[in-house]
Amino acid sequence: MEKVVVKVVIEEGVTLPKYETVGSAGMDVRANISEPIVLGSLDRVLVPTGIRMAIPEGYEVQVRPRSGLALKHGISMANAVGTIDSDYRGEIGVILINLSKDEYTIQPQERIGQLVLNKVAQIDFEVVSSLDETERGSGGFGHTGK
User: Fold this and answer.
1) Would the CA dihedral through 36, 115, 78, 68 be positive or negative?
2) Distances in whole angstroms, Cα of residue 5 to Cα of each of 17, 53, 58, 59
């Protein structure tokens, strides 16, 4: 598997994210908070991680929800997948939302998201008068069934 070096600055006491298994695509990131945060039903909060990084040009880091938090407690991310651009140098934050009826308490150093490194390319638009035909054509949401 290809490895990419990403420079990182972590605040004191922050656990560096790591892959939990050999085949993991994402590395868990933790809440860098000193006191628990109570998240009421449908509330959202920006949770700091204490991590800043220099992502190489041509890459992004996606912040994704943790499936265990979603299934067991209804905790997800308000922006579904967050993108950290290669030119951003600020602290990474995770926008958590409570989609359950019950309040949830985020504990200090709790695993709150996953970081996934991806290659990216930028679009160079070419304005044309028509597009090539495909079998799907302009069929939109749900056009192939349920």
Assistant:
1) negative
2) 14, 11, 13, 11
pLDDT value, residue 146: 67
What is the gyration radius of the CA atoms in the chain, in angstroms? 19
Cα(71)–Cα(52) distance, integer angstroms: 29
Asked if 49 and 88 count as a contact pair (C-beta separation under 8 A), the reply is no
Domain ranges of the chain: 35-119
Contact of 61 with 84, CB cutoff 8 Å: yes
Reported pTM: 0.88
Cβ atoms of 66 and 20 closer than 8 Å: no
Give the number of other Cβ atoms within 10 Å of residue 15's Cβ. Answer: 15
User: What does CATH list as the number for 35-119?
Assistant: 2.70.40.10
